[in-house]
Amino acid sequence: MLGMVTEQDVGITKYLNLNNPGFKGRLKERFSDFNVTEIQLDGKLVTLQKQEGETKNGGGEEEAKKNNGPPETYMELEEPLRKLISEDEFNQLIKIESGEIEKVELVVESMSKDERKQVHGICKILNLSSNTINNAKGEKVIQAVKATKKGQNRGGIVHGERGRSKEEKFLHFTLYKENIGTTELISQLAHSLRTKDKYFSFAGTKDRRARTLQRVAVSLIKPESLESTVGRLRCEASIGNYTYHPQGLRMGDLSGNHFEIGIKDVNIEHQVVDEIMTYFKEHGFVNYFGMQRFGTSDIPTHKVGLKILQKDLQGAIDLILKPRNHQYAEIQEALLQYEVTKDADAAFSGLSWKMKNRIEAKLLNGIRNCHDNDKANAFKYIPSSIKTMYGHAYQSYIWNSTVSKRLEVHGTKVLEGDLIGCEKTEGRPSIGRINVRRINTEELSKYSIYDIYVPLPGHSITLPENETKEYILNKLKEDGMDLEAFRNNVRDFDLPGGYRKMLTKAQDVSWEMVNHEKISDDIIPSKINKNNGENVEFKLEGPMKSLLMRLSLESSCYATMALREVMRIQTDISSMKNLEAGLEMEEEIETNDDKDTNKDENGEAAKNGNQNDNKNGDDSEDSNKRKLDDIESCDAKKAKV
To answer: Quick check: helix, strand or coil at residue 52?
Structure first.
């Protein structure tokens, strides 16, 4: 078996700050050391304020479960709940369900917030919809009305009616989660609601080992069903801030992400940290595609992508199904069996139900159901999002290698013929909402290296007219490739190309050194506590020294590459393990189909079919958007680096 992929293997070799001595520290010692908040298209941070009536388990809901149904008489309510509403008020609520009256207003002016939540819970178990409002007298009341009939609401999905208007087709909500990936949590939600993953959409996947806030959209699901389901999940998650919109979310529908990162047990003086962070704030970092782009297992995804682009599907299959060092034992055993016998049916049939959702298993299933020579149809058993990822990884490898060569030869100098962004002009192709043109000698002084784009290879890109062009073409030539090789009749493998800035700067950069007692301390307050206005005491003191970093990055930029520049470390798993226990890499914060790559002039994905809310997706995609979960086979958690 092969060794794990390194930064050098994927073209990551340069740093900007040549005078940075670097320092050691513990990254992601706890999931609470890494906090990600999505920045919406309007530039505002996503927030989560829990509103009355939005609770994981309203008061009285557990009682309803015990009794296998809602209470029919006032005395069936638990005594604490009977203290909140009178028998007459309860009977009035019962009359709403029977249709005798249309609504009831319960005065809750003197109740606490928790007590009002319990009243909402009583309404919920009686199958009523409730909201806190002010009545004509200015009193705070809970208004209860009849909710959708049970027969029309199975698993939270609206059946037997047209539902909301087109303007309110999609429910958008804020999702807070801890220590679980976005796609994994969405799959759990979909399974519990008896719906499909594809009805959920989001602007970007967020890190697994972290606390994250992001917006999610879903169709055909009601808020109360979501709320109830989240309350039953076995992970820490919360939702709220519901709004209705005519459309769902697409990958890239965000302006970036804000990070709060704790680097624990650092061995560096405050003055040196200030010098490093000041340079980072002013100069930024090389905008490399991070190691997450290439997987962290023995066989990098760009090698598979190369085979696909060379139309060697058998070679791609052999790489995907090659046994690897850090796979689940059950998967590894099945692949070892297939490697020897080439009996895909036996290898697949021996897997447990859970393992049959892995990418390797899906490909084995495709092979066993297709003719021996029909590799293209076997590949159809792999979700489109995964298939396109392979090609994007190869594009990213060429981009990284090109930028490293450019920095090695020319540093941060702007060259004649470089590409800059521009307004769209007649006859000029546009990819991923980015229009580019070449600059001439007279314009060199007007632009800095931060304005310069380097193309990702594809069949429709504009190349710079300088040495950078040769770096790209020569690197492709080493693999027997040219730009036309990115054209393919299969939409998942057709790559027009894209553009990405060489260097980038983080925004809203701040930092501080903190002291605390031990390595397991929480040193960053939870966003959900802040957003709910909770006053949580947070005292930090002790012998251990840690660095808190706060920064905002544009979408498709990698926080790991920012940390690499600051700490002067290598972020591949092999390097981390040599230093200690290994670092679990964050999932790609954006989609593998970045918003500035591989799209046509209308900003739509160009034949790549990996839009998150693809309505024509088949059932095989329902629970298989776990790009890294399926490709990564190393699950290391932390590092002293």
So the answer is: coil
Residue 530's SS3 state is helix
DSSP assignment, residue 484?
A: G
Q: Give the least confident one: 326-340, 449-463, 583-597.
A: 583-597
> What's the token pair of residue 230?
């989240």
Rounding to the nearest 10 degrees, give the CA dihedral for residues 366, 369, 373, 376: -40
Give 134: exposed, middle or buried? Use CB within 10 Å, 0-12, 13-18, 19+. Answer: exposed
Dump the DSSP string for 448-481: -GGGEEEEEP-TTPPPPSSHHHHHHHHHHHHTT-
| Arch. (CATH architecture) of 152-245 | 2-Layer Sandwich (3.30)
DSSP secondary structure letter of residue 588: P
Secondary structure (3-state) at 615: coil
Check: CB of residue 281 under 8 Å from CB of residue 509.
yes
pLDDT in tens, 585-631: 333 333 333 555 565 443 333 333 333 333 333 333 333 333 333 33
pTM for the model stands at 0.73
Tell me the C-alpha distance between 224 and 128, whole Å. Answer: 11
Q: What gap in Å lies between CA 280 and CA 503, rounded to an integer?
A: 12
pLDDT band at 333 (very low <50, low <70, confident <90, very high): very high
Are residues 214 and 240 in contact, defined by beta-carbon separation less than 8 angstroms?
no
DSSP class of 623: T
Q: Do residues 400 and 294 touch, judged by C-beta distance below 8 A?
A: no
Q: Judge contact between 330 and 352, C-beta under 8 A.
A: yes
Q: How far is CA 351 from the centre of its chain?
A: 28
Tell me how crowded residue 369 is: count the other CB atoms within 10 A of its CB: 15
- DSSP, collapsed to helix, strand or coil, labels residue 44 as coil
Show the tokens assigned to 9. Answer: 């293997």
Q: Which amino acid is at 237?
A: A
- The full set of domain ranges for the chain reads 8-37+257-285+504-599+635-640, 61-147, 152-245, 310-381, 385-503
Cβ(583)–Cβ(576) under 8 Å?
A: yes
Residue from 640, 3, 521 nearest 297 by CA: 3
What stretches of 80-207 adopt beta strand conformation (E)? 103-107, 128-134, 140-146, 153-154, 157-158, 170-178, 200-202
How far is Cα 102 from Cα 97, in angstroms, rounded to an integer?
A: 9
User: Is CATH 3.30.1370 the classification given to domain 61-147?
Assistant: yes
Spatial CA neighbour of 324 closest among 303, 306, 305: 303
Rounded to whole angstroms, how far apart are CA atoms 525 and 537?
9
Q: Per-residue pLDDT tens for 143-183? A: 888 876 544 444 444 433 344 566 678 999 999 999 998 88
What kind of fold does domain 385-503 have according to CATH? Pseudouridine synthase (3.30.2350)
